[in-house]
Write a structure and sequence with these properties.
The complex is a heterodimer.
Chain A (H helix, E strand, L loop, with lengths): L1 H22 L1 H4 L9 H43 L11 H16 L4 H4 L1 H24 L6 H25 L2 H11 L11 H16 L2 H7 L3 H6 L4 H23 L5 H13 L4 H25 L6 H22 L1
Helix pairs in contact in A: 1-3, 1-14, 3-9, 3-12, 3-13, 3-14, 4-6, 4-7, 4-8, 4-12, 6-12, 9-12, 13-14
Chain B lengths: L1 E10 L2 E11 L4 E6 L5 H8 L7 E6 L2 E2 L5 H4 L3 E4 L11 H7 L2 H4 L5 H13 L15 H14 L4 E5 L7 H18 L2 E5 L3 H7 L2 E6 L2 E6 L1 H4 L2 H8 L4 E5 L2 E5 L3 H8 L1
Parallel strand pairs in B: 3-8, 3-9, 6-7, 7-8
Antiparallel strand pairs in B: 1-2, 1-4, 4-5, 9-10, 11-12
Helix pairs in contact in B: 3-6, 5-6
Classes of the chains: A mainly alpha, B alpha/beta.
């Protein structure tokens, strides 16, 4: 079976990426990993163990984000009935950064809402939910079929919230600004691992809630009218999906920072690969593709001595792919 | 039986439905006619809970529609709107299988497969079941959608301009199938239509709307009347009898009169 072979290839690529990220450095390192001197060997074993466990945690963070990014992008595309928009293109992750800045600006960096990573996360996630629901009510609901308009809104929104954040950062006390950068300058090479043990269970819950009625999303691909006609509670489904989506975006942005085109690439690649519209296989395949992109990409970048970042690579590939998709959709 | 009581709806300040009271009779084809913007599609949308009316009640077999769960309504009412642009590639069989969603929640059982087969065969598209929807002609695609509605296995079927984009042969075929569904499967069908002659030939009952109100309703014989149709469409109609049926002509009448002189 063709599909089965594709799944096997995907799974082996995922495993390969993980192995690559965890162990490949051992082959290229200039140090002698297994010295003959027993004392040094002991130290070296400790060092190897440290590196591998650090990389495991980083990998876990990437996997959590990968799953969240692809599932939300997939659901978002079903909600807005297109194949081009993703939450980050609409500016969801930019909102997260400005929420962080706002907290520091108005409550100071010594505030418990900033210092405690869990409380901080909860507050920012809560604000994200409010903002995204408002966004949905005001813009998404009415302009669902107008991709170009939504892209423009996304551009304006992310520029606006970035400028707002940088404005606050400029007038901020320099010390406060210093502590703020810890949260806002999060990227894949500078992950915020302090919340990972909150992120993991939250991810599992969100994915469970999001995907437990995945068949309703299948029906929703037939469009709003057909979906309601077939008994899907469309408005309610939209609202709850949006809340999960805001939460998911908060987690992934807090962990590894914003990565614009990742969801777009992986969901569309999964669609092309499976030639399917069903959400369960699409979710699994796109999550795996995202993991490959992030983990393997980051592994390779690490080997080159961090010459560039995965984010840059993904933005380049993703940007070109998005232009291709828009051109293709326009033709059809 | 579906009853609408004092239904009103508006888009902004514009009243689309104005205190509508109407009863949909069972095991009949009811045709909804009226000029563009008369409120036909909105009425159909309200009837099938796609739209929630601002005012009024709809009783589905004596039970208010509001109090029913969406899932349960979907077992009684099926609705097909006029625009069906999909952005996914899906086979005919998969589309028809979606009709079973209210019953199976997507986990198809033996009974569901049987209903899907029946619907495919009833609409004579069994041979197309593995084809993709975008490869089909307009008529075949429309039949696939009707098959989905049929698989939904509801007593009431609401169709919004099902004859759009169909050529005459397919349009006649579609209406004949609807008639057959009423007779054989005891369905109650409401159709929004533009072609009065089609309504006259295939419907049992005609409801005429104008400016958000129902201005006339009745049997074919009663409704195929110059005064009524002139009033409904603000247009000059000419009713003629062909093979014992009433048909109407509504174009180029002045010229033909001149020529006759």
């Amino acid at each position: 079976m063709k599909t089965r072979r594709r799944w096997i290839i995907l799974i082996s690529l995922v495993l390969f990426s993980m192995m690559f990220y965890l162990f490949f450095w051992m082959l290229t390192t200039p140090y002698d990993l297994f010295p003959s001197d027993p004392v040094r060997a002991e130290k070296m074993r400790e060092a190897i163990f440290n590196i591998i466990s650090r990389r495991s945690i980083q990998m876990l963070a990437m996997i959590i984000s990968a799953i969240l990014i692809s599932s939300t992008s997939l659901v978002f595309q079903t909600m807005t009935q297109n194949r081009i928009l993703t939450p980050s293109l609409i500016g969801f992750d930019a909102i997260f950064i400005s929420v962080q800045t706002t907290i520091v600006f108005f409550l100071s960096s010594s505030s418990i809402f900033f210092v405690n990573p869990y409380l901080n996360f909860l507050v920012s996630a809560g604000l994200m939910i409010v903002v995204s629901l408002a966004l949905y009510r005001l813009i998404l609901k009415k302009n669902k079929n107008n991709i170009i308009f939504l892209l423009l809104v996304g551009m304006v929104l992310s520029t606006l919230s970035r400028s707002f954040a940088s404005f606050l950062q400029t007038v901020m006390d320099p010390d406060e600004f210093q502590s703020l950068t810890i949260r806002t300058e999060v990227s894949i090479t500078n992950m915020n691992l302090s919340i990972i043990w909150l992120a993991l269970p939250l991810m599992i819950i969100i994915i469970y809630l999001l995907m437990k009625d995945y068949r309703e999303y299948d029906v929703m691909t037939l469009g709003e009218h057909n979906a309601i006609g077939l008994g899907v509670r469309y408005a309610k489904k939209m609202n709850t999906s949006l809340i999960y989506m805001a939460l998911a975006m908060s987690i992934s942005t807090a962990l590894i920072g914003p990565i614009s085109f990742l969801g777009l690439i992986s969901v569309n690649a999964a669609r092309e690969m499976l030639k399917d519209y069903k959400h369960l296989p699409l979710f699994l395949a796109s999550s795996m593709i995202t993991v490959i992109f992030l983990v393997l990409g980051q592994g390779i970048i690490a080997e080159t001595g961090y010459l560039t970042t995965v984010t840059v690579l993904i933005s380049m590939v993703g940007g070109i792919y998005m232009i291709y998709l828009i051109l293709k959709e326009n033709k059809a | 039986m579906i009853e609408m009581k004092e239904i009103s709806h508006a888009y902004g300040d514009f009243k689309v439905l104005d205190h509508i009271n109407v009863t949909i009779k069972e095991e009949q084809i009811t045709a909804l006619i009226g000029a563009n913007g008369a409120g036909k599609s909105t009425l159909l949308g309200v009837l099938s809970r796609l739209l929630e009316p601002f005012e009024g009640d709809i009783l589905l077999d004596q039970v208010p529609l509001k109090t029913l769960k969406s899932k349960d309504i979907a077992k009684k009412i099926a609705i097909l709107k006029q625009t069906n642009q999909l952005n996914i590639r899906i086979t005919v069989k998969d589309l028809v299988s979606f009709g079973r969603f209210p019953h199976s929640q997507g986990r198809l059982q033996k009974e569901d497969h049987q209903k899907i087969e029946e619907a495919l065969e009833y609409m004579k598209i069994k041979d197309l079941e593995n084809r993709y929807l975008d490869e089909l002609s307009g008529g075949q695609r429309q039949r696939a959608y009707i098959a989905m509605i049929l698989a939904q296995d509801t007593k009431y079927i609401f169709l919004d301009e099902p004859l759009n984009n169909l050529d005459m042969r397919y349009a006649v075929e579609m209406m004949t199938i609807l008639q057959k569904m009423v007779k054989e499967l005891k369905k109650t069908i409401v159709v929004v239509m533009h072609d009065i002659n089609f309504a006259a030939a295939f419907a049992d009952h005609i409801i005429a709307m104008k400016d958000g109100k129902i201005i006339e309703e009745g049997s074919i014989d009663y409704m195929m009347d110059k005064a009524i149709l002139d009033h409904v469409f603000d247009h000059d109609f000419c009713i003629a009898g062909v093979n014992g049926r009433k048909v109407c002509i509504y174009y180029q009448q002045k010229e033909t009169v001149l020529e006759a002189e």
